[in-house]
Amino acid sequence: MKVLSHKDAAYARFVKKLNRRAVPGAAGSQVEEIVSSIVSDVQKRGNAAVFEYTEKFDGLRLSAKSLFVSQEEIDEAYAAVDADVKKAVAASRRNIHAFAKRSMRKDWKAKNREGVIVGERFTPYDRVGVYVPGGKAPLVSSALMTAAFGQATGVPEILAATPAGKDGKINPALLYALVESGATEIIKVGGAQAIAAMALGTKSVLPVEKIFGPGNSFVVEAKRQLVGAVSIDLLPGPSEVLIVADKTANAQFIAADMLAQAEHGGDSVIGFATNSKALLNKVEKELEKQAAELSREKYLREVLKNGTFCLLTKSIEEAVEICNAFAPEHLSLVVENEDCWLDQIRTAGAIYVGPLAAVAVGDFLAGPSHTLPTGGSGKSFSGLRADQFQRRASIVRMDQQALQKSLPAVETFSRVEGLDAHGRSVSIRVE
């Protein structure tokens, strides 16, 4: 764990590096080349390529028959999932739907100065894909935090992709959550090959119009490379949290939030910035104490060693500046006069305000999606939300009077741009 004070010689250089921006190739040339090869292969060979990569990377041999989750498997999952899980899934979905309904874009219309009726119309996509990572943990909540938003928006076809085990089985709770969140088809495929199959289609998989969901560096790179062939939500990579706190904060709570995000392992990034040396010391001790008590201690230790930083800043103002430069996926803001400081936060995927706002409640239950921008992409992207599942079309209507009032400006633009047919298409209607 890197611990630095504003008085240290290396502090300024380290803080400067925190001013991130997601750029092409950030995953590394090797990842970029591997993904490019996979995407090209899936485009050429379809099912065959998908099956080969699934066997190579996941140890699972698939066929056209076993590619999709069957109704029998769904029935088995529903029977295996206990009542507590079903209750938790229902609670999360209820909050997600309520949040989504409020953030969906609504149709509108108005008259402009010339009397032309203009407006916008929003309709759900016909078919979307959602990716749910497998690996170290069955991310049941990620099924809800992607598919359930499409369900709330009214998307009729939701294709889910998630890797299965070597036995061809998907975790029952994850499978249950996907179906409850509106997944109409589920394929047992992960990695870049899943993104390519959803974007480009194969003999068995119909292509989707937009892809949603988090993933590892290969999944994120596949989404980046396939922009244009398909629309994407954002580029959510490994988990991140930054906690900005002053002397009023509770060290136990801060350490617990840091460890909760470190629990994802891998390339997770965990940050803590405070102007209180006493608090920093307490948090260090709490991290050590709490990590030893948790079941995923091995992953936690790796992230604490390689992906965690703690900064003693000159002031909370400086900590907020670091936050805006870093653009964290999750920000926990635990300070006096919290609303004043909240107004100064410009770049964060999700903001948790106050000592009792546990990030895990947002991860699982609160309503906003936990699929959020990482790696500095929060400077350009927002987190997943309901309106991303909607298409937009502008609407224009006009009567004779509105057309006549519009003619002078149209003729001027036509003359300046040398496009006389444009002007004529209006004047002919007026005449």
TrEMBL record:
Keyword tags: Coiled coil, Metal-binding, NAD, Oxidoreductase, Zinc
Top-level lineage group: Bacteria
Coiled-coil region(s): 273-302
Co-factor: note: Binds 1 zinc ion per subunit.
Annotated residues for binding of Zn(2+): Q261, H264, D363, H422
Cofactor(s) essential for the protein: Zn(2+)
Name of this chain's protein: Histidinol dehydrogenase
Signal peptide bounds: none
Classification lineage: Bacteria, Pseudomonadati, Verrucomicrobiota, Verrucomicrobiia, Verrucomicrobiales
